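Field guide to reading this record: the first block holds the primary sequence, the second block holds the structure written as discrete tokens, and the final block holds curator observations. Each block starts with its own label. This record concerns Chemotaxis protein CheW, catalogued under organism Rhizorhabdus dicambivorans.

BLOCK 1 — SEQUENCE
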Amino acid sequence: MHDLYLIVEIAGQRAALPAAFVESVVEVDEIAPVPCAPAHVFGLFALRSRVLTVIDTMAALGGDRSEPGEKQAVIVHVDGHLYGLLVDDVDDVIAMDGVPSQPRALLSNGWARYSKGVLEHDGEPLLLIDVAAMIAGPLELAA
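BLOCK 2 — STRUCTURE
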């Protein structure tokens, strides 16, 4: 049986998001900031008359906060709520067999927190993203 994955790029790393979580991919530009929100929460965005929380994946990984402006976001649903995950690029939806394996290299703390393992596609390793963990943010916030 094949599982479907959306291939994205985050912080220069190609990664796979389980397609079962993905609703759509959109361009977002007018994101309202949320005062006192954790650093990985970029703000709020209105999509088809619904307000959703936009997650800054760069900040969640421990990097600098993303700059304001037009961005690509993967709209995901977790526990009945919609979220936007900011990504650098969206590639394609692919079908892959198999289970994720352990990474062959040491991952940074951010990637280690958000990775469910590595999938191989055309000889290229793709980190499998734990969507719920990415939304929850860094461990010190999730505790």
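BLOCK 3 — OBSERVATIONS
Residues 3-142 form a domain with the OB fold (Dihydrolipoamide Acetyltransferase, E2P) fold (CATH 2.40.50.180).
Helices lie at 57-60, 109-114, 131-136, 139-142.
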